Amino acid sequence: MPRTAAAVAATAAALAAVLTLTGCSPDKTPGGQSGGGDAGPAASGSARGAVASLDVKGRAPKTGYARARFGTAWADTDGNGCDTRDDVLKRDLRGVTYRDGRCIVVSGTLAKDPYTGETIRYTRGRSKVDIDHVVALSDAWQKGAARWPARKRIALANDPLNLIAVDASANRRKSDGDAATWLPAYGPYRCTYVAHQVAVKKKYGLWVTRAEKAAMVRVLDGCPKERLPAGGNPTQAPARFSAR
Predict the structure, then answer these.
(1) Are the beta carbons of 155 and 84 closer than 8 angstroms?
(2) DSSP single-letter state for residue 59
């Protein structure tokens, strides 16, 4: 029996309403993929979505790299009177005690180490806790930082977005690895860890290798709602700082 234009329009409107309420789309398969195609873009603000914005290039030579190219270790770039290492210890440890009442951390507890999931006691001078650069400085050097002005390198080395208190042994095993060569043994932290790497590389304009990007995607595909971290310090240290 022929259908009027009004009836067709009403049916289409009803179908659209149902699809909107259920979150479905007629050309999508479960998991958000279009039939026969690639996955659609991740939600705005997600770490998974931000991966696509990273440039992909080969790893440059390590020639010329030295820690000193990123300035004096733990420089007080935010001008709060405490060095960067102590700032991160204050942020990440629990039950902190100080030598001077406000800056120099002498003890505390890493309640759950992000890399191992273990509880670690921190004692200054006999520490099993390191402050790790989530994006290693050597890795950054090989993926863009060698071309930067010194003040940008200093900013990266002291940016709290790129720093975390972790088990010292796990940090040594990581060395300067990227997501393709090293991930935390503690699985529940991997999404957060990779999301921070994506955030730092996006913030500073560092590139990733093809293998690194694939590794980031594999991890973040398992946690598509992981948000892209934000914040930290400006991407250029104050003019009073310099590096070799």
Answers:
(1) no
(2) P
Closest listed residue to residue 222, CA positions, set 197, 192, 202, 198: 192
Listed in sequence order, the residues at least 6 apart from 166 whose beta carbon sits closer than 8 Å to its beta carbon are 110, 113, 114, 115, 129, 130, 131, 132
Q: Beta 105-110 vs 94-98: how paired, if at all?
A: antiparallel
Cα–Cα–Cα angle for 164, 42, 199, rounded to 5 degrees: 25
* Averaged pLDDT score across all residues of the chain: 86
- CA-nearest of 112, 153, 116, 113 to 136 is 153
Cα–Cα distance, 178 to 182 (Å, whole number): 6
CA 242 to each of CA 64, 69, 70, 223: distance values in angstroms, whole numbers, following the listed order: 17, 9, 9, 40
User: Which residues, including other chains, have CB under 8 Å from residue 91's CB and lie 6 or more apart?
Assistant: 160, 165
Give the tens place of pLDDT for each residue, 116-160: 999 999 999 988 999 999 999 999 999 999 999 999 999 999 999
| Strand positions, DSSP E, the chain | 28-29, 33-34, 94-98, 105-110, 120-123, 129-133, 163-167
Whether residue 65 contacts residue 138, with contact meaning beta carbons closer than 8 Å, is answered with yes
How buried is 143 (Cβ within 10 angstroms: 0-12 exposed, 13-18 middle, 19+ buried)?
buried
